[in-house]
Amino acid sequence: MLYQPTSPTIKVRVANWAKNIKSSMLQEMLSVASKPGILSFALGLPAPELFPSSQMAQAATQVLSDDAQALQYGPPYRPLKAQIVAMMRQRGVDCREEQILITGGAQQGMNLLTRLLLNPGGQVVVEKLTYTGFHQILEQFQPGILTVPTDYNSGIDVESIEKLLRRGARPALIYVITDGHNPLGVSLSLDKRIRLVKLARQYCVPIIEDDAYGLLNYDNKHLPPLRALDEDFVFYIGSFSKILAPGLRVGWLIVPESLIPRLSIIKEATDINTSTFAHRVVSAYLAAGHLEGHLTALRREYRVRRDIMINALREHFPCSARWHEPTSGVFIWVELNEGVDTIMLLKTAVEEEQVAFIPGAALSVTPSRRYDNCIRLNFSNCAPEFIKEGIARLARVSEKCGRNISCHH
Amino acid sequence: MLYQPTSPTIKVRVANWAKNIKSSMLQEMLSVASKPGILSFALGLPAPELFPSSQMAQAATQVLSDDAQALQYGPPYRPLKAQIVAMMRQRGVDCREEQILITGGAQQGMNLLTRLLLNPGGQVVVEKLTYTGFHQILEQFQPGILTVPTDYNSGIDVESIEKLLRRGARPALIYVITDGHNPLGVSLSLDKRIRLVKLARQYCVPIIEDDAYGLLNYDNKHLPPLRALDEDFVFYIGSFSKILAPGLRVGWLIVPESLIPRLSIIKEATDINTSTFAHRVVSAYLAAGHLEGHLTALRREYRVRRDIMINALREHFPCSARWHEPTSGVFIWVELNEGVDTIMLLKTAVEEEQVAFIPGAALSVTPSRRYDNCIRLNFSNCAPEFIKEGIARLARVSEKCGRNISCHH
Fold first, then answer.
1. Sheet holding A374-378, edge to edge
2. Which of A14, A105, A258 has the CB atom closest to B116's CB atom?
3. For the residues of A308-360, what is the DSSP string, one character each?
C-alpha cells in the first residue's frame, strides 16, 4: 500500500442527496427485532417452512443440466414472460408478453418506474402511511411529496387526490398498494378502484400499482387490480417474493408496450438485465405446475394465521385496541389507546417480553405524531402457536405501559 | 377493462432525461450479431462450455437442503464476504469484510457508486473509449463528461487527467479499467498506476476501479490493482461474472468502511439487497474449493484462444491491420487501414460471411469519427477452430471492402 489507511481527516465528496442518507428508523427497529430469541411480528416475511425448497432444487438442477445458456449472459427469458401472462389472467389482468419487463423483484420494479417517470424535484402522490421502500427510492429525487390519507376500510382517499389534481397538481405518479396494503392491511374498494383509474386517465397521471400481495387473498371476493381496469395509465408491479420466495429476486412490471424499450435500457444500466439463472429456475418451477397448489397452501395457512392473530387480539385486547381484518396480504394494523407511545412500547416489549413489531411512527412518510399509538403486526412468518403466545406477551407489556402512560421506566 | 387499450394520442409524461433514451448503437449491432448461424466476436461472453454447471447444481442443491434461510429475505451473506476477502488477497488487495458490499454484478456496483458520488450535472473523467455500460449509467445524470485519451500500450493518459485537475476540474469520480481494458485490451502500466493513485489523493477525487477482468491474467507478471495502492480514494469493483458465471449476478465493491452504510441503503432502495439464494450458491461453490482450479483452467484456455486469434490476425492481416496482445481480459482492439468504415464492414461481414464484431464508433463515449476504422474482437467465447475460421472470413470481407473503400454495395 502506497498510502496509509484512512485518516479520519480525509473526506470523499459524495452527491448532495447522499449526504443526508441515514439508516432509517425502520431499520433501527429491525435490528432490535432480529435479536435471537425474539418473537417477531416486525417484518413482512413469508413462512420459511412453506418454501418449496426441494422443488426449487429440482428446478435448479434441471436447468443447469438441460440448458447451456443457464449461466451465460442472455436476454430476459421469454418463456417466463408467457408464464406471467397466464398467471396474470388468473389475477383478472389481460396483458401481453410485449408489455412485460422482468425485474429483480418489486422494489427494483418501482425503482425503475420512478427513474423513468420522476424528474429531480418533481411531484408524487403517496399515502401518509405506505411502503417504506418507496420512500427510500424517492430520497434520491428530493421530490415534492403530496400525501393523502387512507381510510382503514376502503383504502386511499381518492377525493383528496382529485382535489390535488383539480387545484393544478401534476404529479409524475401516484403510488398505490391495491390489495393487502402495507402497513394498513386494507384492500381498495371497487368503487375507489374505478374512480382512481378514471382520475389517472382524466389528468394523464400514471398510477404505480404495487400488487405484491394481490395473489394472497383470503376471501372469495376478488376485486380486479387497477391494471384490469386500464392499461394506459396503470403501471403494474408484480413479484414472486411473497408467492414463491424472496431470495430468488424475480418480479415483473406490466406497462404500455411503448415504454418497454426505455425501461429495458434503464434496467440494463442498473444490472445488465441478465438474471439468466433465476429466470430459468422460476420458469422451470412454474412449468412443472407447482404454483397453483403452492398458492392454495399459502392462502390456507396464512388465513389460519390471520384468524389466530385476530382471535388473540380479541382475547387479549378486548377494549384497548382497534383493528380491521385484512382480506389480503400479511399485515394487521392495530391502534392502541391514545397516549401509548409504541416506540417506547417496542423497547419494553423487546427487553421484557422478547416480542417485536413495527411502531407506526416508523412507517409515516413525513414525521408525524399521528401514528404514535399504532403498530404493524405481521401474521405470515410466525407459526400459529407463537402467534398466540406473542400477542399474549404484547398484551402484558402494553397493559403495563398503558398504566404508566408514556412507558418510561 | 373500463377503457379501451392504448390510443396513439395518449402520452404518459416521462422524466426529462428519459425522453432521450434511445437504443444504443451497440445494442443495434448486438441484435445484428446475434442472428443464428453468425460466428460472433462481438460480445464479451465467457466460454459457456467452461461453466462449472454440475458443481453449481451441487451447490444449489446443498444450499436448498441445508439452509432454511436460503430462499428467505436476509442480509448479505457474511461468509461470502470472508471468502471475497481471501480471494482479494490473491489479487494483491488487503481488505476487510467491513469494507465489502456484495452487489448484483459489476454493472450494479458502478451504478451504486455513481449514485453515491455524482450530482446531476456534475463532472466525471472517463476515457474516450471505455465500457459502454458506464456511459449508460451516466445518462441519467446528464453530467459534464471530461474525456482523456488512452495509450494502447500503457493505458489511460494520466497526464491529461493531471492537466484537467490542475486547471481546476473537480470531477466526482474517475472511471478506470485497470486490467484487460474494455474495449482496448490494455493493462495500465505500473508507473501510471502509482501516478494515478497519487493524483486521486492529492485532489481528493475518488477513482472507480473496474476490475472485472483482473483475475483473468495470462502472463506471470501481475501488477497490483489500484486498490492495492490506496484504500481511501480507490473504490474497487469486482465480479463473479467473468470468473464464474454472469447468470448468477453476484459481484462486490470494496470501499472505505465509512461509506458502507450509505451504499447499503442505496442498494436497499434498488432491490432490497436480499439476493439470499445467489449469495449462498456462490459461497457453497467457493467453500467446496472449486474456484482455484476453475480459474487455472479459464486462464489456460483463454490464453490459447488469445494466441490463436493473434496468430490468425498475423496470418490474414499481415499489412492491413494493427493490434496489441492483451495480457488480461477478453478483448483485442484492431485498427484496420484508414478509410475502412467498420460500421459498413459489419453489415457486409454479417450478410456475406456470417461473422460479427463491434465497430469502434459504437464504443466511443462522444460521437467521433476517430475510431471508424477500428473493431473490438472477443476471443473468450468462440472455440479455437471457430476463431481461426472467423478471422479468415473477416479478412476476406475486409479485403473486399478495402478495395471498394467505403464498403457500399
1. A321-323, A331-336, A374-378, A358-359
2. A14
3. HHHHHHHHH-TTTEEE---SBSSEEEEEE-TT--HHHHHHHHHHHH-EE-EEG
For chain A positions 105-144, those within 8 Å of chain B (CB to CB) are 105, 107-108, 111, 115-120, 122, 133, 136-137, 139-140
Cβ-based contacts of A198 with chain B (< 8 Å): 2
Cα–Cα distance for residue pair B45/B33, rounded to 1 Å: 13
Å between B353 CA and nearest CA of chain A? 24
CB < 8 Å to B10, chain A: 204, 232
Residues of A in contact with B46 (CB under 8 A): 72
CATH number at residue B192: 3.40.640.10
The whole-model pTM stands at 0.96
Which strand (E) or helix (H) includes residue B165?
helix B158-166
In a domain, B385, yes or no: yes
B126 and B95 in a common domain: yes
Domain end marker among B228, B244, B273: B273
In a domain, A217, yes or no: yes
C-alpha cell at A356: 417485536
Asked whether residue B24 falls in the same domain as residue B130, the answer is no
Q: Do B10 and A232 touch (CB under 8 A)?
A: yes
Do B230 and B96 lie in one domain? The reply is yes
For residues B84 and B238, the answer to whether their CB atoms sit within 8 Å is yes
Instruction: Examine the domain organization and report whether A86 and A201 are in the same domain.
Output: yes
End-to-end, the C-alpha distance of chain A in Å comes to 51
What domain range is A165 assigned to?
A: 75-273
Residues A88 and A159 in one domain: yes
Domain boundary among A245, A273, A301: A273
Tell whether A28 lies on the interface with B, counting CB pairs under 8 A. no
Measured between alpha carbons, how far is B187 from B211 in angstroms, rounded to an integer?
11
Residue B1 with chain A: CB contacts under 8 Å: 94, 228-231
Q: Does B18 touch chain A (CB under 8 A)?
A: yes
Total domain count, chain B? 2
pLDDT digits (tens, 9 = 90+) for B55-94: 999 999 999 999 989 999 988 999 999 999 999 999 999 9
* Residue A312 in grid coordinates: 388473540
The ipTM, to two decimals, is: 0.95
- Indicate whether A319 belongs to any domain: yes
CATH number, residue B385: 3.90.1150.10
Q: Is A23 on the interface with B (CB under 8 A)?
A: yes
Using one digit for the tens of pLDDT, what is the confidence trace for A217-236?
998 778 999 999 999 999 99
CA–CA distance, B241 with B45 (Å, rounded to integer) = 9
**In chain B, residues 201-230 whose CB comes closer than 8 Å to chain A:** 201, 204, 206, 228-230
Report how far residue B255's alpha carbon sits from residue B237's, in angstroms, rounded to the nearest whole number.
Answer: 9
Label residue A26 by pLDDT band (50, 70, 90).
low
B82 and B121 part of one domain: yes
Average pLDDT of chain A? Answer: 93
- In this structure, what DSSP letter does residue A48 have? G
Q: Tell me if A57 is assigned to some domain.
A: no
Place of cell 442527496: A17
Residue in chain B nearest A13 by alpha carbon: B117
State how far residue A392 is from chain B, nearest Cα, in angstroms.
Answer: 27
- Tens of pLDDT, residue by residue over A335-375, are 999 999 999 999 999 999 999 999 999 999 888 999 999 99
Q: Are residues B148 and B238 in the same domain?
A: yes
Q: Are B351 and B242 within one domain?
A: no
Which chain B residues touch A250 with a CB distance below 8 Å? Answer: none
Q: How many CB pairs below 8 A link A and B?
A: 288
CB contact B20 to A (< 8 Å): no
Interchain CB distance below 8 Å, A61 and B61: yes
Chain A residues within 8 A of B64 when measuring between CB atoms:
53-54, 56-57, 60
